[in-house]
Amino acid sequence: MIRPVVALALMLMTIAPAASATAKELVAQVDLSEQKLTVIYKGQALAEWKVSTGRAGYRTPTGIFRPMRMHREYYSRQYDDAPMPNAIFYDRGYAIHGSYETGSLGRPASHGCVRLSPSDAEKFFDLVVTVGPENTAILVRQ
């Protein structure tokens, strides 16, 4: 079940007014406990995708972020040049990106990034390009 958009907007406004849903057209809501990403555009849920986030010993930072940099093709400098297609970095080295390890989606399996299937990562990347990173918020919560 998708959480009410009104509750999301209120939470964003109380935590960080600059990143409020009222100021952002596109919101990527990452739910760590359910291992899913919900894409909300202008208050309407567009998509819900399985993700993999930080496994035991690794954490996925929680909070409200904005896209910092984006790369269609990226390879991890820290983890043996692992491919990270359609990477959207939001907090230092943490990103939402595609992963070819699709069998892990739906459960924690990463070093802290938010992994999507390659096709879902491409769709999300294209949405952020279209709407603009400045009009996008990334909410990661337990």
UniProtKB/TrEMBL annotation:
One of its GO terms (cellular component) is extracellular region. Pathway: Cell wall biogenesis; peptidoglycan biosynthesis. GO terms for biological process: cell wall organization; peptidoglycan-protein cross-linking; regulation of cell shape. PROSITE patterns: LD_TPASE. GO terms for molecular function: peptidoglycan L,D-transpeptidase activity; transferase activity. InterPro entries: LD-transpeptidase (IPR050979), LD_TPept_cat_dom (IPR005490), Transpep_catalytic_dom (IPR038063). Residues 1-21 form the signal peptide. Keywords: Cell shape, Cell wall biogenesis/degradation, Peptidoglycan synthesis, Signal, Transferase. The active site is at residues 97, 113. Belongs to the YkuD family. This is L,D-TPase catalytic domain-containing protein. It comes from Acuticoccus sediminis.
